[in-house]
Each structure stands twice: as C-alpha cells, then as structure tokens.
Amino acid sequence: MNSLPKKAVALLSGGLDSATSLAMARDQGFECYALSFDYGQRHRIELEASRRVGQSLGVREHRIFTLDLRQFGGSALTDDRIEVPQGPSEGIPVTYVPARNTIFLSLALGWAEVLGALDLFIGVNAVDYSGYPDCRPEFIDAFQKTANLATRAGAEGQCFSIHAPLVSMTKAEIIATGHRLGVDYGLTLSCYNPDFGGNACGICDSCRLRAAGFHEAGVPDPTPYKT
C-alpha cells in the first residue's frame, strides 16, 4: 500500500527564489501548501505573481495571510517616506524589513502544526543576496531549534525541519536549478519597485541580482524591465 506524500509548507513571495525553493520541495516529493503574505509591502503586485507560480507548480493549497507591517515601518518596502535605493548599498540596506522572516516562519510553523506537516521551505540565500541578517544559515538553524522547543509537535517528540535549499547557491545556480525543474520565471516578480503593470524597475538591488543571475546562468531573462 502506497503511503501518502509528506506535507510541506512553502513560503512563496512570487519571486525567483521562493519559486525555485517551491519547485525543489515538489521535486523531493512533498505535497506543498504555499503561504504568501500581504504585509503592506510597496510591491504588493508580487502577490499576483505568487498566485501564478503556485498554480503553475501545482500546490495543494495557497493561502495569502494579511498583516500590516506598515504600522511599524522601518523599511523602504513598508514606509513610503523611505526611497528604494537605485543600486547596491553599504551594510544592511533600507529594503530590509525588521524581523520579516522570523514573523513569516512563525506563521508558517503554526499552519504546519495544524496541517500535520513537519517540513517548511524558505527561499533565503546567503551568497547573492542583499545582506539581510535573516537570510543566513545561522538564523535558519536557530529557528529550527525554536520550532522544536516551542510547539506541541516538538514537545511530543516530532521534529520540524526548516529547509533553505538555496542558502549556499549563487543566483546563477538557483536559476539553472529552477530552469531544470521547469520553473517558468516569466511568472515571477523580484523587483522592489515595479510599476502597476508589473514591469520591473531594472535598477533596484533585487533587479540587478536577478539580471546578473540570468546572464551568468546562460538562461534567457523573461523579465519586463522598465530600464
């Protein structure tokens, strides 16, 4: 008798990295439940991309959770008074959203407990990235320990695994992997400051990393850039 596939909750922003991470979870045989967040981000149009990507990759269920991080601000993505930088920044850039991945993983963990899923996937990357502290392997390891200490499932002897399959990959390696797995990157959106039509600005840090990754991977870039 065939056993049922294991369930996994995958964070899905609609960007290149989260789409690839989701595809890798599916390739490993997980039944995937996608979770996206409408958190007051400047680039809310990415949620439309997340819907397209989730449908394309055959997720079992896709939920968009609403919370308003604009109440705190502190980031160019959640405070209109802070401009999105038009190029690389020194140190931690102003596009860092305070505690974002901690918040997102905590909510994903709650849903995972309800679903009976012990695996969470997140598309963080610590090589070709913008210097965010919550994209480092040390953070992922620490959160996994917290997940197993702070939950009923953990207390009853079950073990959560936080998968960050892209964490040590270059952007080119990520794109090559997703291309092999059939990810349609034309459905994704990575830009921090797109227009209302979903055209990427072409000059923010995320756009630059994305464009360079496609070039280095030798994969055609389907992104509609304004610049």
From TrEMBL:
Annotated residues for binding of ATP: 12-22
Reactions performed catalytically: 7-carboxy-7-carbaguanine + NH4(+) + 2 ATP = 7-cyano-7-carbaguanine + 2 AMP + 2 diphosphate + 2 H(+)
EC number: 6.3.4.20
A Pfam family the protein falls into: QueC
Lineage top rank: taxon: Bacteria
Purpose of the protein: Catalyzes the ATP-dependent conversion of 7-carboxy-7-deazaguanine (CDG) to 7-cyano-7-deazaguanine (preQ(0)).
HAMAP family xrefs: QueC
Family membership: Belongs to the QueC family.
Protein name (record): 7-cyano-7-deazaguanine synthase
Organism: Thiohalomonas denitrificans
Lineage start: Bacteria, Pseudomonadati, Pseudomonadota, Gammaproteobacteria, Thiohalomonadales
